[in-house]
Amino acid sequence: MARRSGFSEPTLRYYEKVGLLGVVGRDESSGHRRYEPATADRVVALACLRSAGMTVAGMRRYVDLLPLGNAAAAEQRDLFAGQAERLAEDIERLKSRLAYLRGKTRMWDARLRGDAVAEHRAIEAVTLILEQFEP
């Protein structure tokens, strides 16, 4: 399951301990965990949520709302919409950092070529990016 989900074994054990996975059966002969198909699907869903930046608390809320089905649809929608907004903000910050790195690459490339005009343009572009930089 660790390989399939990308989670480490300690993370899977932690998620089991805090109730994100429910009861996970064990193989009687080896003692290894045996994930039922529904639990395996949940692990994969949690892996998607985690890779989208959702916290354990957010995942806990998601799992807690699952048994409520349609009665919790608005809460589930809000949970996912909020996470999507946070992820969109992260993406914008990453785009800014990528633009900075590309600008610095152009600057150094121009310097290597001895192109002072292109180097100056790249420095100006990087300066504009830095003025808007959010850590």
TrEMBL record:
The keyword Signal does not apply. Residues 1-65 form the HTH merR-type domain. InterPro entries: DNA-bd_dom_put_sf, MerR-type_HTH_dom, MerR_fam. It comes from the Bacteria. It holds the Pfam family MerR_1. GO terms for molecular function: DNA binding; DNA-binding transcription factor activity. Keywords: DNA-binding. This is MerR family transcriptional regulator. It comes from Streptomyces fagopyri. The lineage of its organism: Bacteria, Bacillati, Actinomycetota, Actinomycetes, Kitasatosporales.
